[in-house]
Amino acid sequence: MTTTIDDADELAAPxxxxxxxxxxxxxxRMLPNTSWTRLGLALARKPRTVADRVGTLGRELATIARGxxxxxxVKGDRRFDDPAWRDNPxxxxxxxxxxxxxxxxxxxxxxxxxxxxxAEWMRFVLDNVMEGLSPSNNPLLSPLAWKALVDxxxxxAVRGLRxxxxxxxxxPRVPSMVRPDAFQIGETVAATPGxxxxxxxxxxxxxxxxxxxTVRTVPLLMVPPVINxxxxxxxxxxxxxxxxxxxxxxxxxxxSWRNPGAEQRDWGFDAYGQAIIDALDAVEAITGSDRxxxxxxCSGGIIAAMxxxxxxxxxxxxxxxxxxxxVTVLDQTRAGFAAAxxxxxxxxxxxxxxxxxxxxxGRALAEVFAWLRPTDLVWRYWxxxxxxxxxxxxxxxxxxxxxxxxxAAALHRDMVLLGVHNSLTVPGQAHMLGTPVDLSTLTVDxxxxxxxxDHISPWQSCYRSARLLGAxxxxxxxxTSGHIAALVNPPGNPKxxxxxxxPDAADPATWLHGEDKQQGSWWPNFTDWLGxxxxxxxxAPTTLGTSELPPLTTAPGTYVLEH
Length: 563
Description:
Elements: H1 15-24, H2 34-44, H3 47-66, H4 84-87, H5 89-112, H6 116-132, H7 143-151, H8 155-168, E1 194-199, E2 203-208, E3 214-216, E4 220-223, H9 241-247, E5 252-257, H10 269-287, E6 292-297, H11 298-313, E7 320-326, H12 344-357, E8 359-360, H13 362-372, H14 374-387, H15 396-402, E9 407-408, H16 409-421, E10 431-432, E11 435-436, E12 446-451, H17 459-466, E13 474-479, E14 497-501, H18 508-514, E15 518-519, H19 523-532, E16 537-539, E17 553-554
Parallel strand pairs: 4-5, 4-6, 6-7, 7-12, 12-13
Antiparallel strand pairs: 1-2, 1-17, 2-5, 3-16, 8-9, 10-11, 13-14, 14-15
Helix pairs in contact: 1-12, 1-13, 1-16, 2-5, 2-6, 3-5, 10-11, 12-16, 13-14
């Protein structure tokens, strides 16, 4: 299925659907339901259109069989890069027949004109079915499989079978994207020097060693997602966001969440909000600053925004020097519809299932994320690992992605209900630590970052979320790439670019076409923004922590190592 940048948010599953699918099982999304029925009825009302499409397909298949078709994959479709898809008559015809059938399915789906809920559900089904049927995934029709078989004397098939059995033996039951020993935490990833200066039942607080002679007075506290480990912000030397900030003179602290088990089933919004406040208290005590920059991403951004609203409600808004939200969706509105993607009954079933275990298994969530982008995250590795019998190439971001964590049952409940009711769009409907949450009261200077190809936190939703905030100084940045690559975006990438401006236009597309593209990474712009709000320079501390909060162990700490 293809889309344009302007309607890219139609490809991304909303929060409530992601979390319920993870609890109930991704297979359930493939089973017939009322969305299937409505698709069938919509097409049944257009018999002439269906007949025309099917007839056109039949004629094209006949042309393909004769060898007269000029059907070719679109530019950028790397599944059919091998020359055999063009030169071998059998492979070429199988590819063309598949592309013709896929085009027909795409056209019929568009003709059905489903509402966004049914369209999102059926697109997931059709994308995965049609992608799975690609001849590039078929061991009998894949030239890559045949070449590997010949080149290795059959050993590729043995290795591929071994990889398949290993992957299917445990969740998430998708092809491995990286070997579990490809990187070493604390050495090749999460390697920036620092110390754990506070450990609670919920988190470790890491203070990073300064890398400049002087530092900015106002520190930065980084809050990671609650469903992944923190080191995506410190992914690898030379590509680490934390390392880059330190080299610009910023004092940096980061929260590393504990991986919850059944014993921590009661950790919900309030527990995580209080944890952020506890971390702020420690940062202030260590640095002597009465103000702190708060930066958070994805699910961590939701909790950080709610916590900032709580601080505002109790008269402590001045503790925040700035708020940064990265790939964070606060407004679950979809293409103008303020309705949930799932019904209350389905939500309650998902909540009950996680409550029974005490947590939502992060591997189940990883499985859902993988099937949202089957071409890149499933079938690409199916071909590499199974058909070619090769190990996946080492890639630090995919290593981090595979290093999953659990979500406490209470937090899963709170997140699902927040998505179902789209509570943050209604002042006072959500609560944090006993106070009603009203995002419009957040007047602290705010920097919001989104990714133009993000399939988890669509940029249009991030844009609408920014407009919920009451900040007079509000900067919206639209970065290249997707959910993670938009963040792991160090200077020096010639392909990187971003747009930046105040989110004044009501329509995201209007804003997009009104802002010029800037070449390079957004990191320098952000560190300049931080610098303007971080006070005077002072001598860098020679030791980490304080006598009351002494270093406990070296970064990245111990919680990050828990599985």
